[in-house]
Amino acid sequence: MPHTQSRALIDTYFAAFNAGDTTKMGTLVTEDLIHDVNQGERRVGKDQFWAFNVHMSRCYKERISDMMLLISEDGTRAAAEFMVHGTYLESDDGLPEANGQTYKLPAGSFFEIRDGKIARITTYYNLKDWIAQVSAPQTEAAAG
């Protein structure tokens, strides 16, 4: 897949993420997608990716900004670094209690692209930083 098509694919993926459009995100991945999330277990397949996104949408409202995207010359790999701006909506298992806390943290994702679709997504962020942010008393300044 040419570099420019891969760029458009990843841009579309992040636009769908920011819009909360999990249906669109699902159209951009392979049936046998490998999805590795920070501090979590590997999920394989589009159905598991869908279930993960439904869960995330229930517990978190997030948007991405300040993205730096790198695409390999042959278009088979991509890396993105970005800021996540989020609100913790509903308590997630094993994590602090949710009460609408906001957070902002740097993160990164790595992608493998095959046959015009995303075949692997690996995402990293600092979980301890996130926990500290949602555990701290919220102030007007932290809400931005």
Automatic annotation (TrEMBL):
<protein>
    <submittedName>
        <fullName>Steroid delta-isomerase-like uncharacterized protein</fullName>
    </submittedName>
</protein>
<dbReference type="GO" id="GO:0016853">
    <property type="term" value="F:isomerase activity"/>
</dbReference>
<dbReference type="InterPro" id="IPR032710">
    <property type="entry name" value="NTF2-like_dom_sf"/>
</dbReference>
<dbReference type="InterPro" id="IPR011721">
    <property type="entry name" value="CHP02096"/>
</dbReference>
<dbReference type="InterPro" id="IPR037401">
    <property type="entry name" value="SnoaL-like"/>
</dbReference>
<keyword id="KW-0413">Isomerase</keyword>
<dbReference type="Pfam" id="PF12680">
    <property type="entry name" value="SnoaL_2"/>
</dbReference>
<feature type="domain" description="SnoaL-like">
    <location>
        <begin position="11"/>
        <end position="121"/>
    </location>
</feature>
